[in-house]
């Protein structure tokens, strides 16, 4: 059914195949998959009196199970209680970097990137404007990366090329004639290691061999020495450009089946609430009849009247079928299949992790792409930029220079918040390890800081030492 619905959407032959694939997945994610269906689900006949097949109707019920799995996995990945901490050896530089991370709203940016990147890939653009760092998430359907053959994980260039109409260019500030407002133009820009290059929009269908003209007014020479853009492949696999989507095609097919089954079940319930009246009486044949409890029906001696009612067995069967389809789709996407009805009491963090094991495995794989890959790449870019540009915070104070020789890593919190019993057991375990000389107090405090939302372990150690000193 997914391939059938794709035929309702136009495919631009001037763009690569992956652009159409990513756009269709984005429509599934945004709930726009049925926007090309003109007829509502309750329309059985078109304006011309022709029967409208079910596949051409717009479902009246939409569950968007794919978006639910994406939101659940992203929340488990980058919500406020699950965002990782960047670790550095220098405590002061670490505090400065964390302050910069908060000003950049990296948490919000990564949630947006992981959500939009669920279609296969996403790009995060880093810009330095007036000595401040800003991040912007870009969809990759119209982006084409070029990698360094000697270093396959390093970008040489990224090109954006898409079709826009003249009205959109006018709104963006371009000088476009009014008669070309409905004309399509090629919009193009590219990023390389030193320049963000913009091109003058060219009409679609022009000279294909003509070289694009550089727009010198919009072109920016950043001179960073690297492409200021992080390319994120969603999940391992896919091709050389895009990773695998969070929701495969078979899950989309199942979601569509659920939409139509629920819509048909709702249609059946409406028929059950308003059964059809049948009157067998030749004398009143063709006469108008208003059905209702206030209207008595008079039939002759040989006449008869009855209501054509529908039993609810079909609706029960549909709901059982939909429940099974939902299980199949969640299994294909590694979504959360746990039921809240099965939780009779408060569960420990470990019990909840086991209960949501499939979703945890999905988020664990996403940590590789968006955490160990994207976040650390962005941090390394900031380190390199700080050695050439005097970065500043929003209040005007200096960020300072970061040492490029210091390694950085991510410390991830627990998947689920521990209960008081979990905290007591862990605290007792850490005390035993410290007393036995198997663990340092500094490491134990770092472990506890993540659980109690303490940002600076070094400052916490100083406070503990001050409190443990005898009062004079």
Can you tell me the overall shape? flat
Please outline the major beta sheet. Answer: 6 strands, antiparallel
Strand content: 15-25%
Count of runs of 4 or more consecutive helical residues: 13
* Structure class: alpha+beta
Number of strands: 15
Radius of gyration: 30 Å
SSE string: HHEEHEHHEEEEHEEEEEHEEHHHEHHH
Give the % helix.
25-40%
How would you state the average pLDDT, rounded? Answer: 84
Low-confidence stretches: none
CA(first)-CA(last) distance: 79 Å
What does this structure look like?
This protein has 13 helices and 15 strands. With 472 residues, the chain is α+β, with helices and mostly antiparallel strands. The chain is flat, with a radius of gyration of 30 Å.
Short key terms for the protein model shown above:
three-stranded antiparallel beta sheet, flat, alpha+beta
In short:
The chain is of the alpha+beta class and 472 residues long.
Furnish the topology, listing elements before pairings.
Blueprint: H1 2-6, H2 17-30, E1 39-40, E2 57-58, H3 65-78, E3 85-87, H4 91-103, H5 106-116, E4 121-129, E5 132-138, E6 143-147, E7 155-165, H6 166-171, E8 184-191, E9 195-198, E10 202-203, E11 220-221, E12 229-233, H7 249-273, E13 276-280, E14 304-308, H8 313-333, H9 349-355, H10 357-386, E15 409-411, H11 420-435, H12 441-451, H13 457-468
Parallel strand pairs: 1-2
Antiparallel strand pairs: 3-15, 4-5, 4-12, 6-7, 7-8, 8-9, 8-10, 9-11, 13-14
Helix pairs in contact: 3-5, 3-10, 7-8, 12-13
């Amino acid at each position: 059914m997914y391939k059938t619905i794709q035929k309702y959407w136009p495919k631009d032959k001037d763009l690569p195949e992956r652009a159409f694939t990513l756009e269709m997945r984005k429509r599934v994610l945004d709930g726009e998959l049925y926007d090309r269906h003109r007829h509502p689900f309750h329309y059985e006949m078109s304006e011309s009196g022709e029967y409208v097949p079910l596949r051409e109707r717009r479902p009246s019920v939409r569950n968007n199970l794919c978006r639910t799995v994406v939101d659940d996995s992203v929340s488990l990945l980058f919500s406020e209680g699950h965002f990782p901490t960047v670790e550095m050896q220098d405590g002061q530089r670490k505090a400065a970097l964390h302050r910069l991370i908060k000003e950049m709203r990296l948490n919000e940016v990564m949630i947006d990137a992981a959500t939009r990147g669920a279609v296969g890939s996403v790009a995060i653009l880093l810009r330095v404007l007036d000595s401040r760092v800003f991040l912007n998430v870009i969809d990759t359907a119209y982006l084409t990366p070029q990698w360094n053959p000697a270093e396959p994980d390093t970008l040489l260039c990224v090109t954006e090329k898409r079709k826009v109409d003249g009205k959109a260019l006018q709104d963006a500030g371009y000088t476009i004639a009014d008669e070309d407002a409905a004309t399509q133009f090629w919009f193009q820009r590219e990023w390389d290691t030193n320049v963000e290059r913009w091109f003058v929009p060219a009409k679609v269908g022009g000279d294909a061999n003509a070289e694009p003209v550089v727009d010198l007014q919009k072109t920016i020479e950043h001179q960073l020495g690297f492409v200021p853009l992080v390319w994120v492949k969603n999940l391992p696999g896919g091709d050389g450009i895009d990773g695998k989507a969070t929701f495969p095609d078979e899950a989309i097919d199942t979601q569509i089946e659920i939409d139509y089954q629920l819509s048909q079940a709702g249609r059946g319930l409406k028929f059950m609430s308003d059964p059809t009246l049948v009157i067998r009486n030749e004398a009143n044949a063709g006469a108008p009849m208003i059905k209702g409890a206030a209207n008595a029906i008079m039939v002759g001696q040989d006449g008869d009247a009855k209501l054509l009612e529908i039993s609810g067995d079909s609706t029960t069967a549909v709901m059982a079928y939909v429940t099974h389809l939902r299980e199949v789709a969640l299994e294909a996407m590694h979504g959360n299949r746990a039921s809240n009805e099965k939780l009779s009491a408060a569960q420990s963090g470990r019990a909840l992790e086991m209960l949501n094991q499939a979703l945890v495995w999905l988020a664990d794989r996403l940590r590789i792409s968006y955490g160990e890959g994207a976040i650390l790449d962005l941090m390394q870019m900031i380190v390199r930029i700080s050695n050439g540009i005097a970065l500043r915070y929003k209040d005007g104070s200096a960020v300072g220079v970061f040492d490029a020789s210091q390694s950085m890593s991510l410390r991830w919190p627990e998947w689920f918040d521990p209960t008081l019993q979990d905290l007591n057991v862990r605290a007792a375990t850490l005390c035993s390890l410290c007393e036995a000389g198997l663990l340092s107090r500094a490491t134990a405090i770092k472990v506890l800081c993540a659980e109690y939302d303490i940002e600076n372990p070094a400052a916490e150690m100083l406070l503990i030492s001050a409190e443990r000193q005898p009062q004079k």
